[in-house]
């Protein structure tokens, strides 16, 4: 894997994104772990996020609705596996229905049902390096290949999401 200060790579079928943020680790961790902050920056640019449920603990869930300006809705969820404040968050991410049941996304019958994500936070000189590593969890070979084929799209999507995070951190 090659890493840059703000980079995106693939490693063993995982998307790895690194971003250095001009904010202390405790603040960056806080905006990842409190619903009122998370809804301000999570998701694709231009989407309005509504939090249906937020329970930050192993086995707990962040269940949310993303709405485009023209009213199209998509539901998603994180199911938390591990939280080590302020160092690490491990969660599965998936699309869901309004009740929180895991579903396949509308855009593909072979997108993996669950993506396992590990987010780490390290601080140096008042800046935080955030690293997100995510890949298919319990996925078929076809789902894993499709995930790899989405690399460029996901890179752009997470780039926009992390741009929003950076802008939000400058305001809080």
TrEMBL record:
Which SUPFAM superfamilies does the UniProt record give? Bet v1-like (SSF55961)
| Occurrences of domain Activator of Hsp90 ATPase homologue 1/2-like C-terminal (ranges) | 22-169
One Pfam family name from the record? AHSA1
**Protein family according to the UniProt entry:** Belongs to the AHA1 family.
Q: What is this protein called?
A: Polyketide cyclase
């Amino acid at each position: 894997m090659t890493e840059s200060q703000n980079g995106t790579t693939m490693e063993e079928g995982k998307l790895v994104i690194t971003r250095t943020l001009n904010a202390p680790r405790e603040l960056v961790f806080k905006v990842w772990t409190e619903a009122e902050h998370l809804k301000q920056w999570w998701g694709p640019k231009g989407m309005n996020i509504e939090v249906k449920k937020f329970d930050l603990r192993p086995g707990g869930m962040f269940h949310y609705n993303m709405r485009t300006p023209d009213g199209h809705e998509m539901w998603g969820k994180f199911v938390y596996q591990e939280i080590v404040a302020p160092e690490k968050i491990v969660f599965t991410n998936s699309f869901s229905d309004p009740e929180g049941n895991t579903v396949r996304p509308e855009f593909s019958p072979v997108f993996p049902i669950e993506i396992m994500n590990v987010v780490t936070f390290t601080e140096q000189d008042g800046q935080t390096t955030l690293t997100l590593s995510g890949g298919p969890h319990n996925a078929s070979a076809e789902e894993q290949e499709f995930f790899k084929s989405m690399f460029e799209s996901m890179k752009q999507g997470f780039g926009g999401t992390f741009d929003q995070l950076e802008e939000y951190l400058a305001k809080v």
